[in-house]
């Protein structure tokens, strides 16, 4: 057959590569600032826009969707064209995808510090940005499948299987998790409430890690590692088993983030079972990658890209072993809400995602610029500095987690808590937080060194924007192919549909009973809707990112019920849009904080936490005393909550502000008795009202 000539589009690869480097530095720098604030809270510079609660989601979004996201698109656009022997379907769609994604990142960088957040972990962006993400993801999908359709290679290589699974699953996750009722341009409430919202969030949250931080990187591993080592993939059959078992099992594992909560126990158990099963396919991928290097291990000593790849695969193996171990209830009882989770996440993010991204950048940039890497020695230095950074980050966090987790649970021989004050456990681990910040600084230094190395590489060569290539036209179908999977690899549309069905099964089995069978979320008659003032205070609490440090669910452990009070019940959260159970306790749990302290205590604590808790690392919130409650939004919020099923009286929105001001006046009058003079329309009054409500409904039932 006659050869056809065409050109690969390297310009789009270069663009995503530069964006990866830029946003990587930004995201890591914000992460370093976040780490430093946990030791020296004054590093928030006493402004609302740089407090830990607001910039922690900025850091996670910048690293996940800006750094890793651009890295995914760089790797996919480079490998997809070469695997399919075709230029991308549309240069225009490639450009729309690139600039649309950068605008989404920019919107996130502006809105999150301003306090526009849904509070759902890894999905904090408000509804206008969610719509933009959906549109740009569709553009990416059209471009990818258009390229697959016009391919010159009949069979789809294993990397493309992972790209297809990534596209369809992220689409499903994003749509289901983003069902919100907008009430303003940058404010919405989730359709789900309480336990159901928690299940949907962690079904999304866990699988965002699975299908954004894992499957596309596995696809890139299957392409770039054999290229770097100049060796074929170890086992085609293992890759088939790895792919289908991974995407089927992964989707079930989300509930292991909600162990010992008021989620139905059957859902928790399903999450545990499938998490343990997940070890097999995860390690199947790691083994397939490492065994691909058989006969090429001598190259690891001299090639920095392979050094990064080996550590990336090792970090993937560690993280995917540790995740199932953390899902065991005995381990989870100690580890959850501690820095163990932080360490676990960063072993994956820094080791697996970061190091593989670095390897691909070091390999692809010289290729598309028609030159060699400026300095292999500098790349090796980056490798060792980055590896030390990971060790300095992770090891102190594991140490801190075990120390704090055991301190939370320790009782004296007389049967009382040995460390009744939560702050005493926080102060004990501050040295480990300092070491974590040093590790982050080392990792960032390595990224800056890479940036210099790649800039010099680009200056040495010249971008081959349209790289000439040739291949035979798509060969005819051979009907005598015996392998069912080989036949499936010829049919991308069918492949996508089957992958979609496989990933839908787990989510439907776990979520549908929770929504359809009322006994899964038993109600409590004494639980009433939030008052207008409490509702406004809750939204301020969400805006300030308090949920990033404080959980709102008391687990049924003796240590927690003694420390905080009665364990949390599912019926207490039926009006919570969104749920606020949290995933990390930098401060104590707040679900039973209502009526525990006088209003004056909360006022002082928010003004300057060290007044009530000497040594506290919580930053001050003086702007809450100066900023007015947005009473103009009260009616819209009450109306929206009624649409979501919260039983406010008919037309209550018309006089809700009257009740708001009346409740505010009672708090202001109480503060005046403590010689505190504050206006009744200030935000601090609303957040005090919300805090004083938390966990008090259940006490009515107890009486």
From TrEMBL:
Domain Cytochrome c: 532-695
Cofactor(s) essential for the protein: Cu(2+); heme b
Catalysis: reaction(s): 4 Fe(II)-[cytochrome c] + O2 + 8 H(+)(in) = 4 Fe(III)-[cytochrome c] + 2 H2O + 4 H(+)(out)
Enzyme nomenclature, EC number: 7.1.1.9
Broad EC category: translocase
InterPro entries: Cyt_c-like_dom, Cyt_c-like_dom_sf, Cyt_c_oxase-like_su1_dom, Cyt_c_oxase-like_su1_sf, Cyt_C_Oxase_1, Cyt_c_Oxase_su1_BS, Cyt_c_oxidase_cbb3_su1, Cyt_c_oxidase_monohaem-su/FixO
Iron-sulfur keyword on record: no
Topology in membrane: Multi-pass membrane protein
UniProt KW Iron keyword: yes
Positions of the Cytochrome oxidase subunit I profile domain: 1-495
Pathway this chain belongs to: Energy metabolism; oxidative phosphorylation
Chief subcellular location: membrane
Family from the record: Belongs to the heme-copper respiratory oxidase family.
NCBIfam families to which the protein is assigned, alphabetical: ccoN, ccoO, PRK14485.1, PRK14487.1
Protein name according to UniProt: cytochrome-c oxidase
Organism: Olivibacter jilunii
Gene: ccoN
